[in-house]
Specification:
The protein is an alpha/beta fold. 39% of the residues lie in helices and 22% in strands. The chain contains ten helices and ten strands. Helix 3 crosses helix 10.
Length: 292
């Protein structure tokens, strides 16, 4: 690895840019790292671009939980994320927050669920686009909590939050980075995290799974390389990432986005991808969402 390393970003450009200046310092020859942001369409176009770039280790894909969702959501994909890519390492994990208007009568998630059960179909939750992690998190919350509420997809998180502040909707589910402004301004209130434990970004907010057994959503991002990339290249990248992801400045900046940096073995993130494909396939089927 002596030439520049180009990282093709799948829907997580900001995280990729934060990492870019750190990765090269830990690679042989200290190569420069270029990040190309290609969001949208479940990461399909970016994955295709990474595959077309070859398997010499100079083109990588930043894969997210959204790629696991794409497998059961789309009728066909121009690639197989399990067979056509090889994992390098996880980068970090991040959870969704369940928030309400700060003036809402709901002080806890238990309060919200109690009213939802007393008034089936009356409460609603705002998320972004149908088929997104946030939308499917709401679907999983619905089935896990045994309640009946309406999911209202918006084009952007901003639209959903505005609707929440107008009291047009009763809750919003999204990631911390997108909801942070309203939380800092005390316009909204966090009721729970979707992970198994509270996130270090807001450790005082409880995990929803304590109230809703079976409801757990932990999103993630990871570096992948096209299949056929030499094992010594994968090993070098994994070693470099392990050194990068403990950088105090990078960890602090990532946590500002609600991302808890965590390296892994290639096998661990491979298992996570396969597990999440099965998980979201079940949620999509249960919710009756048609394949696109």
């Amino acid at each position: 690895m002596s030439a520049s390393l180009s990282c093709v970003v799948l829907g997580a450009g900001l995280m990729g840019r934060l990492m870019a200046r750190h990765i090269g310092r830990h690679m042989p020859g200290r190569p420069s790292v270029l990040v190309e942001n290609m969001p949208g369409a479940g990461g399909i176009s970016a994955a295709r671009a990474a595959l077309q770039a070859g398997n010499d280790g100079y083109a990588l894909a930043l894969v997210t939980n959204g790629n696991a969702i794409s497998v059961p959501l789309f009728k066909s994909l121009p690639y197989d994320p399990v067979k056509d890519f090889v994992p390098v390492s996880s980068i970090g994990t991040f959870e969704c927050l369940l928030i309400v208007n700060a003036s809402s009568p709901y002080k806890t998630l238990e309060d919200w669920i109690k009213v939802a059960k007393e008034k089936p179909g009356k409460l609603n939750i705002g998320t972004i686009t149908a088929g997104s992690t946030q939308h499917l998190t709401a679907e999983l919350f619905n089935s896990s909590a045994g309640v009946d509420f309406v999911i209202v997809p918006s084009r952007t998180t901003g639209e959903a939050v505005v609707a929440l502040l107008r009291n047009d909707i009763d809750m919003v589910i999204d990631f911390y980075a997108a909801l942070k402004p309203g939380l800092l301004d005390n316009k909204t209130r966090a009721l729970a995290w979707s992970g198994a434990t509270p996130s270090p970004a807001m450790p005082e907010v409880p995990a929803a799974i304590k109230t809703v057994p079976g409801f757990e959503v932990v999103s993630w991002n990871a570096l992948y390389a096209p299949a056929g990339t030499p094992q010594n290249v994968i090993d070098t990248l994994n070693k470099g990432l392990r050194e990068v992801l403990v950088d105090p400045d990078l960890k602090r900046r990532a946590l500002d986005l609600g991302i808890d940096l965590k390296a892994s073995t290639p096998a661990e993130i491979h298992d996570r991808l396969q597990s999440d494909i099965k998980k979201w396939a079940a949620v999509i089927q249960r919710a009756g969402i048609e394949r696109q």
